[in-house]
Write a structure and sequence with these properties.
By secondary structure, the chain is of the alpha+beta class. The chain is built from eight helices and eleven strands.
Amino acid sequence: MHEVPTSRALDVDQVRCYRQTGHLTVPGVLDEEEVEHALADVERWGREFTAGLDADGRAWYLEAGRDVLRKLDNPHAMRDVFAALAAKPRLVAIVEDLIGPGVSVYFSQIFLKPPGGGGPKPVHQDNFYFGPSDPEGMVTAWVALDDATPENGCLFYGEGSNAGPVHPHVAPPGRPYDLQVPESIAARQPMTPAPVPRGGVSLHHGNTFHQSGHNHSPRWRRACAFHYVRNGNRFTTPALDYDHSLIRRVS
C-alpha cells in the first residue's frame, strides 16, 4: 500500500482511520458563507441547465417521475464558485495528507437529492468507474452542503473494503451509467452510515464500497463530490467516457 507522510491538515489518528476503514469525516472545512455562496450558484446553474435539456437529458438528469434535477456534472470546470472550492487550501491539504503532494480534480458532481423521495445510489466503487493505474492515488471528497443524515440519504460505507479488490460492476437494464457492485457481492458487506454536518467533508478511498439511500425527509441533501487524483496517476481502465480536458490541477 502506498504510504503517505503526514500531516499538514490531519492528525495521525485521522489518517489511520482512513487507512483502516476506507473513509474519514472532517467537519467544518467550509464556513457558512462558503456554503451559502455554493448553494446560490447551484440554484442559478440548475435553472439554466434544466431549461436547456432535451428529452434524453431530462430522462437522465431529472428524478424519475418528478420534474426535479438530481445532479450536475463537473462543477469544478464549469463554475467559478466550485473551482475555488476545489482549490481551497485546507481541502487540498487534507487530500494531500491522504494521497500525497501534487493533486488534480479529475471529475466532480453536485448531487441534489430532493426532499420527499430523492432516489438512492446503489453500492459501487469509484475506482471501477475511473480505472486509475495507482488505486492509492485517488480519493473522493464529498462536501456536504446540507446536514447529511440517514433520514435524508447520507453515504453508507463498507468499512475495510478499501483493502479488497475492485469488483466488476453491472448496470440495470436501461441505465447503462448506473454501474454497481453485483448484489451477490454487495450483500456480504455490512454498510455503516456516515452522517456529515453541513460544511463538513467525507473522504473515501476509491476501492471503498459506498452507497446512499432515499431522502424520505422534508429536507434537501445537497452535496458536491470532488474526485482528486495524484498528479502522474493514469486512467488505464475507465468504465465511462470521461473528458480528460476537464482535469484541473490544484497543487
